[in-house]
Amino acid sequence: MTTSEPAVPDATDPASPAPRGGLDTATPDLPGWTHIYSGKVRDLYVPADGSITERIGQECVLVVASDRISAYDHVLASEIPDKGRILTQLSLWWFEQLGVAHHVLASTVEAGVPAAVEGRAMICKKLDMFPVECIARGYLTGSGLEEYRQSRTVCSLPLPDGLVDGSRLDDAIFTPSAKAEVGEHDENITYAAVVETVGEDVAARLRELTLEIYTKAEAIARGRGIILADTKVEFGFDAATGVITLGDEVLTPDSSRFWDAATYEPGKAQPSYDKQYVRDWLTSAKSGWDRSSDVPPPALPADVVARTRSRYVEAYEKLTGRTFA
Predict the structure, then answer these.
(1) What is the distance of C-alpha 304 from the center of its chain?
(2) Which of 128, 130, 97, 114 is nearest to 28 (CA)?
(3) Model's pTM, two decimal places?
(4) Could you tell me the mean pLDDT of each successive run of 10 residues in the chain, 325 residues long?
């Protein structure tokens, strides 16, 4: 599963750890808002006084997507131009398509988003986030493939023999993971562990919503020539409505694995619409970086930055049918 952000709408501890890698994640000073947290990609702000909360009508947070990029649990020194805008605009488009309760309250300057972060920020409901990464898989790859090769299971769910890298599953499966601290790996867990963590009723609803979102999104993506192999979503409890609500980002190249349907071929690793160019270069001899060391990764070459940006733009445009300006 693509490594992604912790659930920022609930990460309100100013002492939260900085991303691994020693990068100074400078954040803009936004009048009316107080910065309280930075994750691998997103920065979180809360209203500096009661005027914003009063105007919005409920407790809220400002979630700002930066152009930072992470790989192998490091935030890199290089940024990908427009990445924050692409992630935000794609998430907003998906929220419109899904028809489920979500956390977005506003996304325009007219509605209160600071002009300095226009296009890459959302004013969101303040949710009590569940400590579970909700993952749906419709294809076998990544960490799921690794477990399958050892035990013919994924998150202890039995799968048939004979599957290969990229095999489509008869039915999508819910394969949750436990949230890890920034710089650590999320850990796959069983459904029983989710029940133990959040209770039987909530666990059942999280599984139902996750598979509902994946099923709808997979059909939409397939109609646009893209395969949605798997995705990670996060949910929280909205105290104002009493509803389990979709939070964080949704169905972006950072939280999902997208493949080109035209080149899909089971039995091998599929090129994905994400930061694969970054990973490939970092693990190549050209980078000179030892992944097992404590040394932060080097800066990315200009061509790797450009190709990575073009991959994000391509995913946005193919999925939405819109031109990224």
Answers:
(1) 21
(2) 114
(3) 0.89
(4) 36 33 64 94 95 92 96 93 98 97 97 96 97 97 93 94 97 91 70 97 98 98 98 96 96 96 96 92 96 94 97 97 94
For the domain spanning 129-260, the CATH number is: 3.30.470.20
CATH number given to 8-126: 3.30.200.20
For the chain, what is the radius of gyration of the CA atoms?
19
- 183 and 19 in contact (C-beta within 8 Å)? yes
Strands of the sheet with 33-38, listed across from one edge = 33-38, 42-47, 60-65, 121-125, 104-106
| Contacting residues for 235 by C-beta, under 8 A, at least 6 apart | 127, 129, 130, 132, 134, 206, 209, 244, 245, 246, 247
**Contact yes or no for 41/66 (Cβ under 8 A):** yes
Domain ranges for the chain, please list them.
Answer: 8-126, 129-260
